[in-house]
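Re: that chain you flagged

S.,

Sorry for the slow reply, it's been a week of failed gels. I finally had a moment to sit down with the sequence you sent. For the record, here it is as I used it:
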Amino acid sequence: MHYYQIISGQLYRQKDEKHKTPRFCPFEHEAFDIIVREHASELMHAGGDKTCAEIDRMYYGITKKEAAFLLDHCITCAKTPSAKTAAPLEAIDVKELCERLQIDLIDFRHLGQIFKWCLHVRDHFSKFSAAYPMVPKESENVALHLGGFIGLFGIPGILQCDHGTEFKGACDRLV
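Prediction finished late last night. Pasting the structure tokens below so you have them in one place:
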């Protein structure tokens, strides 16, 4: 069985179960430029895993070890704060209904419909969600729908939101 083929004068590894397209087999001296181009230009410094996956998808013969070595020495990535330094997540412990409500707006403007926004309200304890379609995302409109939810289920102990302007004003007076 032939594992390689010539396409436009260049050597390619034939497709297999994992790789659905032929992969280019570069010369050893081309590996550095390929890794740098894929990581910096094509993937915009997306990280080692994505870069290695993309190189494996398109090229044959460039090892993860070679890519990892170059990526460890990327000055741009070294200057960017790593997600690994973020504090660990802590579980939110709630013991009753309406102890904590989470609210947010979902943007539907791209659909071109009458309702441009959707208020999403979720009880953290029961995982119950309610969605309210809205035309403008003004504070008064948010307060009106949130007031209806609170009227049905009770006053929340904590109202969690992203502190956007649509949650200030009328919503501050609501709870």
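What I noticed first: The longest strand covers residues 100-107.

Talk soon,
D.
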